[in-house]
Write a structure and sequence with these properties.
214 residues; alpha/beta; six-stranded parallel beta sheet
């Protein structure tokens, strides 16, 4: 099985790639990320995505963890909006960067990658969840809910038996520790990675796959 893991230098993506590689000696795990590599990929740049897919060639599964390491930043609803929604990404506020990078980027990945996924293969995206709504989290809820709604509906249109799912992790223990926060409420990354492995090897289709809370 040839599996492309996008975001493979992140905490979750690295654990997923390692877990898949350890599962079966016949698995060929291809790793890509925005800052690592080569190959490199930026989900906000369609040309970058197309180049990665050409380099990877036909695959049996694509797992996208690219947006998991930094869930959409808390952005107050009352923050001044961008004067120009088409401005350079570096000058955009959290709403536009979150929509581009995590929501639109993953949706566009599915549309571009379908031709590269073999019959009966799978695509697995990443959403996320908050324990409860907090000030500034409206964008995060919008992006995560949008991704999950997309997967549930788009599953009906997947050709050739290709499966589409989205994993919804919360706080990861290792991420909390790296941020200097109490890691106790987080889920160990190995347990998070197991959900992605099950998505690749299982039969789920059109589902949001939750990560068990600690």
């Amino acid at each position: 099985m040839r599996i492309l893991v996008i975001g493979a230098t992140g905490t979750i993506g690295g654990a997923v790639a390692d877990a898949l590689a350890a599962r079966d000696a016949t698995y060929e795990v291809l790793r890509a990320s925005r800052r690592g590599g080569p190959p490199r990929v930026d989900l906000t740049d369609p040309a970058s995505v197309d180049a990665l897919l050409r380099t990877a060639g036909p695959v049996d599964a694509i797992v996208c963890c690219a947006a998991s390491g930094a869930l959409t930043p808390l952005t107050p609803l009352t923050a001044p909006p961008d004067a120009d929604a088409d401005a350079d990404a570096d000058s955009r506020d959290g709403y536009w960067t979150g929509l581009d990078g995590k929501l639109i980027g993953q949706v566009d990945l599915v549309r571009r990658a379908l031709a590269q996924v073999r019959d009966g293969g799978s695509l697995t995206l990443t959403s996320g969840h908050f324990a409860q709504p907090v000030a500034g989290s409206s964008l995060g809820h919008l992006v995560n809910a949008g991704l999950e709604a997309f997967v549930h509906a788009a599953a009906l249109e997947m050709p050739r038996g290709v499966r589409l799912n989205v994993v919804s992790p919360g706080w990861v223990r290792e991420t909390l520790a790296a941020l200097g926060m109490d890691p106790a409420p987080g889920t160990p990354v190995a347990e998070v990675a197991r959900v992605y492995v099950n998505a690749v090897e299982g039969t789920d289709h059109g589902r949001t796959l939750p990560v068990p809370a600690r």
